[in-house]
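Sequence decides. Consider this:

===
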Amino acid sequence: MNFFMPKSRYIKVLIGVAGLTLWGSLLGHAAEPPRKDAVVEAVGRVLPSVVNIATKTRVQRVRYYYDWWRDNWAPYAQELPPQESAGSGVIVDPSGYVLTNVHVVKDADEIWVKISNNPGEAKMYRAEAIAGSLATDIALLKIIPERAGEVFATANFAENDDLLLGETVLALGNPFGLGGSVSRGILSSKSRRADSDGNKLDIPDWLQTDASINPGNSGGPLINLDGEIIGINVAVLREGQGIGFAIPIKRVNESLGRLFTPEFLNGIWFGATIQPDSIPLTIRSVEPNSPADRAGIFEGDKIETINGHAPRNFIEFSNRLINLESNRTVSLQLRRNSEKIACEVKLVPESDYFNADLIRKKTGATLEELTPDLAQALGYNSTDGLVVSKVDDSSPADEAGLTTGIVVLAIDGQNVSNIVGAARQVYRREKDQQLKLEVVQMRRNGLFLRRRTGQLTLRLR
């Protein structure tokens, strides 16, 4: 019996096996929908959370008419048709918190959010503006649900610096309420300038993409192929061809961490900042002598529960902190390394600590907020700034040349318009450190008022 196969037949068998393998592979691929690629899947995950935002702003025009009965000119207000605008947004918490651009909702009297979860179906909700910053062009809205416990589809954030130059990105929006819109491009440039607190964002701060960002897409998300938000669409450069921009998610997190706090919204002092992108939520910093500091909270502590509830994200944690009962006491369960720590924080009004007494203690100057009557008495045509009402003898303020009646416009380059803000600026400086004040003084010379501006430097005590 011949146990050896002829060479020609052996080759034919090998070719047959290879052909069957290739055919099976093709059949396997044919079973997978060739059109449902990573782009389609990412869009499918995120688009239900993308909303249209419509606003109405009532406008009045003041004119004058001659009143024959009173024999003088009198004003009247004419109601004009409301101005309407539209943009997009993205839901980032199941309870209905929406991120968008400030310029989409600025000065709006009414805000409506339109959600198109299913093709051909849309639902309108009223919404309210919670917080916003012109410097970052980020606004946080809250959908007013129709029933208690109503939840909404959400999108997730990417990690702060999870950006790859040249990767495929998708600009999503819901322009003019017509339904979901998708444009595709690449990430052309990352943020190119270091963060400068308090400065207005400009093109160097933004992500750049060639994905089309139409005006109605402002406020919508820019996502990667994992279906994560890497930025918020903000603008298109008209002078350029196919150049769009988005606010990086790192900047969005920083803005949320400043805006959605009891200090910013309610003037209530907690005293600890949270990393919005951390899971579990992590304490980023603690202000000395703050309620958080006195409760024994340290930088790096992980938040496990707030009043017995494990927060799913920064927004839910802050929402619970902002909406405390009247006693303003919160119980936190923390983890420090491997140790569990329970603490109670009693929040207090910021003005109890950051007040005129703190400023006087460190500078020797007593400042007051400018009222319209006080500004008029000084011959000052604005209520911006704080007026010096008293200066202690031989104090740092006295040695720097501050006198009563001078108006302080800015401290260390930051405009000040209230005592709490000014006291916070002073609080951040240690003894013997210097403060730079931008000031203005009105001097009367006969019938005329002379305005003098300048800078003063004083050393804190």
In short: The CA atoms of residues 236 and 244 lie 4 Å apart. The radius of gyration is 30 Å. The domain at 163-224+231-241 is CATH 2.40.10.10 (Thrombin, subunit H).
